[in-house]
Amino acid sequence: MPYVLLSFDIGKASNVAAIDAAVDSDKRIIIVCQRDPRSSESGRSNLFGYGCICRINKIIKLPEGNTRIFVEGESRARIDDYIQDTPYLKATFTELGDYPCPYEEASTLRQMISRRFRDFSFGNGKAPIKNVVDSIEAIPDDIRYTYSVANVVMQSYDDRENFIEQEDQSARCLNLLTVMAREAEFAKLSHKIEDDVRRQIEKNQKEYFLREQIRAIRKELGENEQTEADEFREKLASKQLPDEIRDRISREIERFSTLPAGSHEMPSMRTFIECMLDLPFTETSNDNLDVKNARMILDRDHYGLEKVKERVLEHLAVAQLTGKVNGQIICFVGPPGVGKTSISSSIAEALGRKFVRMSLGGIKDEAEIRGHRRTYIGAMPGRIIAAMRTAGTINPVLLFDEIDKLAKDYQGDPSAAMLEVLDSAQNFAFRDHFLEMPYDLSKVMFITTANSLYDIPGPLRDRMEIIEVPSYLATEKVEIAIRHLIPKQLEKHGLKRSMLSIPKPIVEDMVAKYTQEAGVRSLERCIAAVCRKAACEIAEGASRIKLTKAKLAEYLGVPKYTEDTIEKEPAVGVVNGLAWTAVGGTTMEIEVEVLPGSGQLQLTGKLGDVMQESARAAITCIRAHAEELGIPADFMKSTDIHIHVPEGAVPKDGPSAGIAMLTALASALTGIPVRARIAMTGEITLRGRVLPIGGLREKLLAAVRAGVTDVLLPEANRKDLEDVPEVILEKLRIVHVRTAGEVLKNALVRQPEKRRPLPPPSKKDTAIVIPKVGNAQPPAVQI
Fold this sequence. Notes:
It is elongated, with a radius of gyration of 48 Å. The protein is an alpha/beta fold. The longest helix is centred in the first third of the chain and has 33 residues, at 169-201. The strands form six sheets. It has a seven-stranded mixed sheet with strand order 17-18-16-15-19-22-23. Strands 1, 2, 3, 4 and 5 form a five-stranded antiparallel sheet that branches. It has a five-stranded parallel sheet with strand order 7-8-11-6-12, sandwiched between helices.
């Protein structure tokens, strides 16, 4: 438009040549629009007959050969004839002047244009900002004012061309008023359509309005306009479901399809529908009930664990005879590293079922098990439903790992929520808060693992079949290393059997001198360290390495453990106790020191309440029978006793150290040493009776590892020796005791001399008589 500033970029060679020619002369050009803006041809036939004479104000060279031109319109022009096509278009033209209207007509037209222009500006979403409107209204010249308004209002090339073709100012003003009236009608119609759509969907739902517009555009373009709801319907139609489940999902999909895009219910409803469509309701995996195949898989993957394998094979045999497989709930209890988790995976493989592992360690919120109610933002189903969704069948093997590590706080008790899951009388209708409908878990085979049976709540423990997975013997560890661990680590480190040879005696040394554990995890780490060292030597040029004792010490360093970790000589006030921990059995040294004092008792070594009570019970038992032990009855008045259990940073608790504390106290008070290489375990009472203890297999295994030769056990534990392997019993001399006297008789180097009390002044001399049976010596304390 004349009197209007404009900037544009050019890159075509003919246009650049025309600009260069104009700059060399009077810097004037004629700008003419193409009839078809989409066409790349700019010949005579594609150009309008009118244009605008412009003066070039500034030229800026841009990268890649483009040029930016700043021009200012001067006047209208009519193209008379083209006289040149190359290198640029050149034509003869007639410059058209602008003549003002009579004053009254011009004033009236300006008022009409101004009113229409302001209405257009504030009623059209594409109108200019207020500052631009005010600057245009401030133009005093009517002709310049008309061109400026037309430049803002007219967006179409056809409208602009028709405008500049008008000969006089009056015609141009009428033409401008016509275009503004048309644009105003378009604006009204657009507002009406917007109001209608807004009433249909919801007021001020901008996002939904845009989606509807996109959908309408796709429909006009013939593109696919399938929605999420349609995808859900297709998936529902292809899935086999019970009728009540199908009806529920169908209703939710219909609700979902009618929700506005910005609804807060949409995310949770989408999650619910996706969860329901992914959950298995009728999908099952075919059980492999071949007992021989199951035995082969279990023996292939694990050495030992006979009780566990026997229980699985029993389950398969019953299923084979009855023709139906019921869900089982089994709990493997044992120290870390003995294969509880891996045997569960092998069970799933033997049965031909999907296997899903879920760790329960540290879970303290009930919602983790049952899920969140859908009223909460971000609600999700619980871990049980998530595991079933992952499995994809209704009869998987579901492993709850570390069930004894469940915690609880103010948010709820997750172990209570597990009661319904692990109860075969209830889990056929398990209710997750997110689903709000029963779900059948009765066909699932549940396996749980734990390190400590005592940390599992009683009601939960009562619902499971407990199978203890014992610690490995040294011979078993050697076989596991040769059969499984060494081939696994060789493959992991890129080594072949011909590259690294580990003889069986070296594996035995590795087990005895570098590991001291219930399982085989530390052993596997040692083998991995050996493989890494060997890989370095092979990478440096070695062709084959055979591991020797010297090489083993070079690779793993000085042995961490020796076979004999206990006192080899008799000692006063020092006794070896036997303890059970979550990682297996261990020996526990108990020290007692007697000092002059005022009867104070000091207990150190981070002892728990039960262990402290055992110490006090042992002291009371000693005081009650001080005379038989040859010590003053009132020794506590002038004596302080300090009982210490080394490794003070490790918490210790339990009653089974009772007889060990009793022996250490008796030794310290009488000065009689305790026999070397002896260990003991058992609970003591005030009357000197020895009560049974638990964890016998692990404790005896720890005694063998520590080099113990004699072990004192409660008589009530005699029956438990049937579960102890013969290879352990062959290395130990087991002595069963019933009373404290029998304990001291077998533990002390010599028997204490009985202290004869002074006779009372007014009565006959009396003495306590201990009858002698045969040639045996009477016990030191007969209770």
